[in-house]
Amino acid sequence: MIRRFKIAENFIGIVQNSKFKIVYPQSAADSFAMLIEDSVNVGSPIKELSLAKYEGKAILLAVINGRNGFNEAK
Predict the structure, then answer these.
(1) Does residue 40 lie in a domain region?
(2) Which tens digit of pLDDT belongs to each residue from 11-54?
(3) 43 in any annotated domain
(4) What is the DSSP letter of 14?
(5) Which has more pLDDT, 55 or 36?
(6) Rounded to a whole number, what is the distance in angstroms from the first to the last CA of the chain?
(7) Alpha-carbon distance 29 to 27, whole Å?
(8) Is residue 41 in some structural domain?
(9) pTM score, two decimals?
(10) Structurally, how many domains does the chain consist of?
């Protein structure tokens, strides 16, 4: 299922098996999100970001003005 999120929604998740598992907000908890590379080229193929180097770490994902940015929690 593809779910679109609000313009300024934040998510906290843990990387498990190279996938982003959402833990906050509660309404999306226990679901997984595919993080994709933003491309300015129309018609470019969708490329999933590799999260392997973040395995087991918490990440804050911010959706701002329809664009995603994520930061590793230290």
Answers:
(1) no
(2) 899 999 998 999 988 888 888 888 877 666 677 787 888 999 99
(3) no
(4) E
(5) 55
(6) 31
(7) 6
(8) no
(9) 0.66
(10) 1
